[in-house]
UniProtKB/TrEMBL annotation:
This is dihydropyrimidinase. InterPro entries: Amidohydro-rel, Hydantoinase/dihydroPyrase, Metal-dep_hydrolase_composite, Metal_Hydrolase, Metallo-dep_Hydrolases_sf. It comes from the Eukaryota. Carbamylation allows a single lysine to coordinate two divalent metal cations.
């Protein structure tokens, strides 16, 4: 009955999904179309003590049960955001959304679980984990952790085992960019991949060539381009493609599954497509910003006018007009939001299964923080919002355009990790009205940041109700969240992605024996 090793899932067993006893509510969601990753049916959903106990038509209940009418609406698992950064210290500051404000925003947008990244403390994974557990004390929804690996020695290798066997971590992220801070070498990546494989943990990469980015940044500064436009210009798609290809090939050499986070370009996507076609186990995660934004319209109109006047005076004859546009700090993230064309290609890749699930990389800084880089784009803290907007934007961009089905939507936003509306599942559920509409604005959103990269966007569909562990936390545009009610979800190692790895290893070893035998009989 459970989705535990859903064919397409990066998932983990349902039994580990917490939030069981925190509520004694009884809830009946009546008459909706229940959506799961592979099917839809009109049915009632009955929830008791935070657990789904029945999914079938015409459920009769006592009067003490809270009724929610879902007629004409979809009832689906709450979204799971596989990529967020809450309360992260980064680039000389800390993200403005912490585990409470970020999660509150998530719940208002129909996401009921997220997986954040533990950043090690002085290289120590366990210390980093303890620090993040503390940060997450105010959680109001379920969360899990990946862990970043930022250096390599015996103790890191040992701590990876502790993280997997004692702390419920089954994924590690390697940054191939951010030279001088988080970036790791190929040697470290290789060792990390080997270690991930032996522990049954999923290796994740931020794929950009950090050395080349460093050169690209110098190039911009030498040209006198210090504004935010220098950010995207200094790290073009080719550098994302290169690192993606390198990580994929190293993972192939080690024979371990790979998860490429925030796929932002055609270049990276095509490397993933090629690897998957060859049978390699590579997961590609586009993020909302890469799917729905492109760099047109990201330029400051005041500056564009000024730049036009400047260029008409031909002072800047050595720099193209394009480079003179002022890119707005708010959009600075890595890899950068690309020019038009990459967005549509990523959408197509998602709709055809080349890419599998959508994250946000929610990593917010307010305009004061973004202004740290006012004179030098290299100092602008990298990151954009999305945790509240993801479900709406993916629905509007992918389902309303006819690119994916409603059941695909559930797979891409939730089930690929674990979400499902099944008897025995935890009741993290949303009611989605496809005939209503949403509008995004920086003044109305629930994130603490004062800007929103999707400000002004409107579209079809609306998350009307969010239910966490059987409790209604979002209804009638009102949040009722309880700090401290969220639970940490442990994730066991050796997900389905590891099936067959040992067989492939055995085949490889026996293939080595043939030439070795030939060598000995010939000599
Ligand atoms: O710009 C970004 N993506 N900020 C968050 C850190 C990361 O690289 O994921
Ligand atoms: Zn499936
Ligand atoms: Zn990253
Ligand atoms: Zn990230």
């Amino acid at each position: 009955q459970s989705n535990q090793f859903c064919d397409a899932g990066v998932g983990y067993p349902e039994s580990t999904c917490g939030f069981s006893s925190s509520s004694s509510s009884k809830l009946l969601i009546k008459g909706g179309t229940v959506l799961n990753a592979h099917q839809q049916e009109v049915a009632d959903v009955y929830v008791e003590d935070g657990i789904i106990v029945a999914v079938k038509p015409n459920i009769k209940v006592d009067e003490d049960v809270t009724l929610l009418d879902a007629t004409g609406k979809y009832v689906m698992p709450g979204g799971i955001d596989p990529h967020t950064h809450l309360a992260m210290e980064f680039m000389g500051t800390e993200t403005i959304d912490d585990f409470f404000s970020g999660q509150a925003a998530a719940l208002a947008g129909g996401t009921t679980m997220h997986i954040d990244f533990v950043i090690p403390v002085n290289g120590s994974l366990v210390a980093g984990f303890e620090a993040y557990k503390k940060k997450a004390k105010k959680s109001c929804m379920n969360y899990g952790f990946h862990t970043a690996i930022t250096k390599w020695d015996e103790s890191v290798s040992r701590e990876m085992e502790i993280m997997v066997k004692e702390k419920g971590i089954n994924s590690f992220k390697f940054f191939m960019a951010y030279k001088g801070s988080l970036m790791i070498s190929d040697e470290l990546l290789l060792q990390g991949l080997e270690r991930c494989k032996s522990l049954g943990a999923l290796a994740m990469v931020h794929a950009e060539n950090g050395d080349a980015v460093f050169e690209g940044q110098k190039r911009m500064i030498d040209l006198g381009i210090t504004g935010p436009e220098g950010h995207a210009l200094s790290r073009p798609p080719v550098l994302e493609g290169e690192a993606t290809a390198r990580a994929i090939r190293l993972a192939k050499f080690v024979n371990t599954p790979l998860y490429v986070v925030h796929v932002m370009s055609i270049d990276a996507m095509e490397e993933i497509a090629r690897a998957r076609k060859s049978g390699q186990k590579v997961i590609g995660e586009p993020v909302v910003s890469g799917l729905v934004l492109n760099d047109s319209g990201l330029w400051d109109p005041d500056f564009v006018t000024a730049a036009k006047q400047e260029s008409s005076r031909t002072i800047f004859s050595s720099i193209t007009f394009y480079q003179l546009y002022k890119y707005i700090e708010m959009y600075v993230m890595s890899p950068p939001i690309r020019e038009s064309g990459h967005d549509k290609a990523l959408q197509a890749a998602l709709s055809t299964g080349v890419l599998q699930l959508v994250g946000t990389d929610h990593c917010t800084f307010n305009s004061t923080q973004k202004a740290l880089g006012v004179d030098d784009f290299r100092k602008i803290p990298n990151g954009v919002n999305g945790i509240e907007e993801r479900m709406h934007l993916v629905w509007d961009t992918m389902v309303e355009s006819g690119q994916i089905s409603v059941t695909d939507f559930v797979r891409i936003t939730s089930t690929e990790w674990k979400g499902a509306i099944l008897v025995g599942s935890d009741a993290d559920i949303i009611i989605f009205n496809p005939n209503s509409s949403f509008e995004i604005s920086a003044s109305m959103h629930h994130s603490r940041t004062d800007t929103n990269v999707y400000d002004g966007r409107k579209g079809k569909g609306k998350v009307e109700v969010t239910i966490v562990g059987g409790r209604v936390v979002w209804q009638d545009d009102e949040l009722k969240v309880v700090p401290g009610s969220g639970k940490y979800i442990e994730m066991p190692p050796f997900s389905y992605l590891f099936n067959g790895i040992d067989k492939a290893d055995a085949k490889y070893l026996s293939s080595l024996q043939a030439p070795v035998k030939r060598y000995f009989t010939a000599s």
